[in-house]
Amino acid sequence: MKHPAIAWLLAACLALLLTGCKREQLHQQESYVFGTRVEVITWGASEQEARAATAAVLQEFDRLHRAYHAWEPSELTALNTAIAAGTPQIPVSAELAAMLTDAKAIATTSDELFNPALGQLIALWGFHTDSFTPARPAADALTAAIAARPRMADLTISGTTVSSRNRAVQLDLGGYAKGYALDRAAALLREKGIRNALINIGGNLMALGSKGEHPWRVGIQHPREPRPLASLPLRDGEAIGTSGDYQRFFEIDGERYSHLLDPRSGMPARGTQAVTILITPRPHAGTLSDAASKPAYLAGERWREYTRRFGIEHALRVDDQGRIEVTRALRDRLQFDAGISPASVID
C-alpha cells in the first residue's frame, strides 16, 4: 500500500500554500472518509457559519461512504448480490440510478476504459479490504474474471430499476464517488451561504470562490518523491483530479502493482506514473475530475485522445520514466517545483 508520508503529502502542500492567510478568516476541518483524508477549508465566513456548513459536508461524506461502499454492507453491495444471483429487476434509490446512468455514459465515452463494473477483478487483486497481504491473483481466477468481460454496457437502468445481462458485473464506484462527493459538497456549501471554499478528498480538489483577493493555490503531488511536482491557482468552480500508481499499490519482488487495473488485460496498468486533469467550471465538474482521469491514465501514450473526448484542455501526464507531458493550456498556469525536469508541451 502507499506510504503514509505520501498519503499526507497533499496536506503539507496545502498547509504551505495557505501560510499567508489571516487565520481569523480561515476555517479548516478534516476527517477520514472514503478510505482517505478529507478536508474542507472556508474563507471569509463567520466561525459559526463555517462550522455548520463544514459539519453538513462531513455528514454527507459519511452518508455517501456508507451507502456506496464496495465491500462492506451497503446499497451497492446489495445491488451486486442481486446481480450475481441473476435477479431480473432490481430496485435502487434514485440517487444510485442517476450515478450509474452517468457512470455508464462516461464508460461509453472512454471505450469502457473507465469501468466500474470490475469489482470482482479489484477484489481478486486484494484491493477490497482495508488491510491485506500483497499477493498476485491465482492465474485461473484472473483468466476467468477477464473472460467474463463485465462492462457498464451490460447494465440497463430504467427509472429506479437496474438489470444486468452479465452476472459477472460487480460495481465498484471507487473511481467515481470521490468526484461525486466533491459536487455534493460544493452544492451544500453554496446552500449554506459559503461562497469561498476549498474541498479536498484525498487529492481530488474543488474550489469555490477565492481566498481573499487571490485564487486558491494547490499542489500537484510528485508521483515518486515526497514533494509537489508543481502548483497552480484553482479558480471558482474548477476541480482537479489525479490518477496515479502511487495512490494505492503494493510491491512484490520490486515490482509495483497499482489499484488502477486495465480492463483489457486484468492487470495493473503500465506506462504511466500519474495523470492530472483540471476541469473548468461546468455541471458535475467534480465527478468528471475523478472519473475522466482513469481512462487517460490507462490509455498510456494515447492519453491526450481520451482527455479530448471529455473536452478537457488542462491535463498533465508523467510517464513510467518520469517524463512530463503537459497541455499548453495547463502549462500556462503551472509553477513547477525547483529541480523538476522540463515538461514537453502538447496541444
Describe the protein in words.
Helix 8 (177-191) packs antiparallel against helix 9. The longest helix has 21 residues, at 47-67. The chain contains twelve helices and 17 strands. The chain has a nine-stranded mixed β-sheet with strand order 1-2-6-7-10-13-14-15-17. It has a three-stranded antiparallel β-sheet with strand order 3-5-4, covered by helices on one side. A three-stranded antiparallel β-sheet has the order 8-9-16. It is 33% helix and 25% strand. It is globular and about 55 Å long. With 347 residues, it is α+β, with helices and mostly antiparallel strands.
Helix/strand layout:
Elements: H1 4-7, H2 9-17, E1 26-33, E2 36-43, H3 47-67, H4 75-84, E3 90-91, H5 94-109, H6 119-124, H7 139-148, E4 155-158, E5 161-164, H8 177-191, E6 197-201, E7 204-208, E8 216-221, E9 228-234, E10 239-244, E11 249-252, E12 255-258, E13 272-279, H9 285-291, H10 293-298, H11 303-309, E14 314-319, E15 324-327, H12 328-331, E16 335-336, E17 344-346
Parallel strand pairs: 15-17
Antiparallel strand pairs: 1-2, 2-6, 3-5, 4-5, 6-7, 7-10, 8-9, 9-16, 10-13, 11-12, 13-14, 14-15
Percent range of helical residues: 25-40%
* Classification by helices and strands: alpha+beta
Shape: globular
Low-confidence stretches: 1-16
Distance between the termini: 35 Å
Computed over alpha carbons, the radius of gyration is: 20 Å
Mean pLDDT: 93
Strand order of the largest sheet: 1-2-6-7-10-13-14-15-17
Q: Report the β-strand fraction as a percent range.
A: 15-25%
Order of helices and strands, N to C?
A: HHEEHHEHHHEEHEEEEEEEEHHHEEHEE
